[in-house]
Amino acid sequence: MADWKRHLEAVQIVAEKDASAAELAVAFSVDIDVAQGWLDSQEFKNEVKRFRQIVKDRLKKEGIRAKENRLAAQHHRWEALKFIVKERKEDFKDKGIPGGESGFITRRYVKDGINYEFDEKLFDAFLKLEAHVGKAMGDIVERSDVTSDGKPLAAWQPIVNVYASESKPDTECEPDAESGLESAED
Question: How crowded is the C-beta side of 63, counted as CA atoms within 13 Å?
Fold first, then answer.
């Protein structure tokens, strides 16, 4: 490709959209064999790879891919939610509406007047945002109990002590000499 600007445009189109030879041929008014030659060129492939890496690095540094930026955006949303709650607290202050000063009460206008109700959606938004940030920061970790063969452990399934004897477990509880607990029959 002789024209450097066209070369960069072709690289960008392929890097961003995985354009085919036919799409390049149409976009640059060239024969499909010429466009396929560009795609097959190792130099062109390297330029596409380099372009993608530059975009990836920039997003990582400046965009939403950067953890700090995601957390800052989530913090901004959290502050906005807090502002709504604060405004509602002020609005319901001294009006005698149960829960009004929590900030989670909202008005719903109905035919016969106004209903005051708990704003479940706002409360849920707080919980989800806080849980999401907790997971992102590593403070909240999801756990799952699985058996030794990788299958989920059913809630009702007894946990078997592999060090116990091969006999069936007793249905009655024996007193524990160390803890002083009584048996189930006592």
Answer: 8
